[in-house]
Design goal:
The protein is mainly α and 162 residues long. It contains three helices and no strands. GO terms for molecular function: actin binding; phospholipid binding.
Length: 162
């Protein structure tokens, strides 16, 4: 009975983990989508800053100074967007597909093994019950045979009258 409880507890734990994995897919997909969007916006924003032309000489010189000051920011943003895309978003996208496949396969394998184990337990339980019934039946037969072996050809009253 304790094995059955342990199997049930482990099966329940496995199902909780599988449900958590399945429930986390939308969160990870949202994270990947928003990360890609951030990377795209940062890339677009750096192009706009660099390509903004000025109409007058003052605006042009101010933009030149601003561009000079922001070149380090631009290079850092490019590094950041590249790292974000190559180091986080793309690998997560690839891993998510793998996670889905692995989780699905784990779920299928677990269901198959669980059904097999449950069928084995049922079979062994029914076999045990059958053996218990046979054993009880065998005890009755043994008792009848014992009565026959120890039965006397006459009763006690007949012996007294002899």
């Amino acid at each position: 009975m304790e094995v059955k409880k342990e199997c049930s507890a482990l099966g329940g734990l496995f199902q909780l983990i599988m449900n958590d994995m399945k429930a986390s897919y939308p969160t990870w997909e949202d994270f990947v989508t928003k990360g890609a969007k951030l990377q795209s916006q940062l890339s677009d924003g750096t192009v706009v800053v660099v390509l903004s032309p000025g109409a007058t000489k003052e605006i042009g010189s101010a933009l030149t100074r601003m561009c000079m000051r922001h070149r380090s920011i631009e290079s850092k943003l490019k590094l950041f967007t590249t790292a974000l895309s190559e180091g986080l978003v793309t690998p997560l996208e690839l891993k998510m597909e793998e996670w889905k496949k692995v989780a699905s396969q784990l779920d299928k394998d677990h269901a198959k093994e669980y059904k097999k184990a449950r069928a084995d337990i049922k079979k062994k339980s029914s076999d045990t019950i059958k053996l218990q019934k046979k054993m009880k039946k065998g005890e009755k037969i043994k008792l009848k045979k014992a009565d026959e072996v120890f039965s006397f050809p006459f009763t006690l009253e007949e012996e007294v009258t002899r």
